[in-house]
Write a structure and sequence with these properties.
Layout: E1 2-4, E2 7-9, H1 14-173, H2 175-193, E3 199-204, E4 210-215, E5 224-227, H3 233-240, H4 244-269, E6 279-282, H5 286-295, H6 297-305, E7 308-311, H7 313-334, H8 336-390, H9 398-403
Parallel strand pairs: 5-6, 6-7
Antiparallel strand pairs: 1-2, 3-4, 4-5
Helix pairs in contact: 1-2, 2-7, 3-4
């Protein structure tokens, strides 16, 4: 209940509620007016600099208008000046073009005369050149025919060579023919490096295995075997491989085949008490040898472990030259006794020669004495003959010589 001016009103009375709402609305309006006045004050404070800036902007716009008018006058002056200059340039260009045109006509006439003269000279030179060129062409054609004949001959040789290469590929593609090819190559190298009596081809060992070549080295190290049968299938597959998988598979196959071949050589051709403590595996291709040492060093070490030395044609020749030195030294030791006997006989012969020289020197001394005696007797005889020649004998005629009484020898 609310009591106002001695009157009591209930809170639930509609008039009371309407009056309260009206009062609240009035209060809200007053509050909003207060906020609006404050906002207007702030806006006025904020618009003051803006008004100042608008004034400055107006001054700038006025100055721009004045500048635009000045610029328009300048552009009009420039336009008038450009029109006058263009007219002057046009007149000057017409005069210069006339002069240039006249000069061009004069130069064209002069160039036409020069061109005609040059054409005449060129025609004469062309005639001479064509005449000389015809001769040179004839010579060149002759030389060309000779070269073509040489090319045909070379083509025939190339065709023959290609046939030989194909036959070589056929040989290398077949395992048996490839083995025969390796044996032939090994035989050629061994035959050039060693004496014929120092090696044996296709020698049979005590275990029944047949070696491609057995070199009779002295003990130690003893006879050593060279095997020329190398598996090239894996190497050819690796060369033909195009993908990484094919290369890896071919490399695995090559490792397996080479290891097996090294093991076979070690088991077949290294016999204790009969052969040397090692064997040689001959590769008929330098490319395979380089491939093994470059990309498969573990196979080379496997050969070292199995006492199988891998050699190519070049290294095999060097190895065989070393063996030849060993054989030469061994044969020198074998012949040491005969050499000592021969030296003893040679020493006796030298002693006999010295004795005979001494005797001959004695004979020469006696002959020298006899010659000295002969020289002395000849000198005495010469002196006596000179004295006799100095005597004064009177020459007699034949009648007087008949009257000369000869001296008779006294009787004894």
């Amino acid at each position: 209940m609310i009591e106002i001016s001695g009157q009591t009103y209930a809170l639930g009375d509609p008039l009371v509620i309407a009056a309260l709402i009206a009062i609240l609305v009035v209060i809200l309006i007053v509050v909003l007016l207060i906020f609006a006045v404050r906002a207007a004050g702030r806006s006025a404070a904020a618009t003051a600099p803006l008004a100042q800036q608008m004034g400055v902007l107006g001054q700038h716009v006025q100055q721009l208008s004045l500048g635009q008018a000045t610029l328009q006058g300048g552009l009009q002056t420039v336009s008038d000046t450009q029109v006058n200059a263009q007219a002057q340039i046009t007149q000057t260009m017409e005069a210069r073009l006339g002069a240039v045109q006249q000069q061009m006509q004069d130069r064209l006439a002069e160039n036409a005369m020069r061109s005609q003269h040059a054409m005449t000279e060129m025609q004469e030179r062309m005639k001479e050149t064509l005449h000389g060129s015809s001769k040179q062409t004839t010579v060149s054609l002759t030389q060309l025919q000779e070269r073509l004949a040489s090319i045909d001959k070379a083509q025939d040789n190339i065709t023959k060579l290609s046939g030989d290469v194909l036959s070589l590929q056929d040989i290398l593609s077949n395992k048996q023919t490839r083995g025969a090819f390796g044996e032939i190559q090994l035989t050629d190298i061994v035959g050039k490096a060693l004496p014929k009596d120092s090696f044996q081809l296709q020698a049979t060992l005590s275990n029944g295995k047949r070696a491609d070549c057995l070199i009779a080295l002295p003990n130690p190290p003893g006879p050593i075997v060279i095997d020329s049968k190398f598996p090239l299938e894996a190497y050819e597959a690796m060369r033909r491989a195009k993908t990484d998988w094919e290369v890896n598979e071919a490399a695995k196959a090559m490792r397996v085949s080479v290891k097996k071949h090294i093991k076979d050589i070690s088991e077949k051709y290294i016999i204790e008490g009969e052969t040397a403590d090692g064997a040689l595996m001959f590769l008929p291709s330098e490319a395979v040898y380089a491939e093994l040492h470059a990309n498969f060093p573990e196979l080379v070490r496997e050969g070292f472990d199995q006492r199988v030395w891998i050699v190519s044609p070049t290294t095999c020749m060097a190895t065989l030259n070393t063996m030849r030195a060993i054989l030469k030294d061994a044969r020198m030791r074998e012949q040491a006794g005969a050499i000592r006997t021969t030296l003893k006989s040679l020493h006796r012969d030298v002693e006999l020669v010295v004795e005979r020289v001494d005797k001959l020197n004695t004979h020469f001394g006696q002959a020298r004495k006899d010659l000295d005696g002969i020289n002395t007797a000849a000198e005495r005889a010469g002196k006596r003959a000179a004295r006799l020649d100095n005597f004064d004998f009177e020459e007699l005629t034949q009648e007087e010589q008949a009257n000369v009484v000869p001296l008779a020898k006294p009787e004894s």
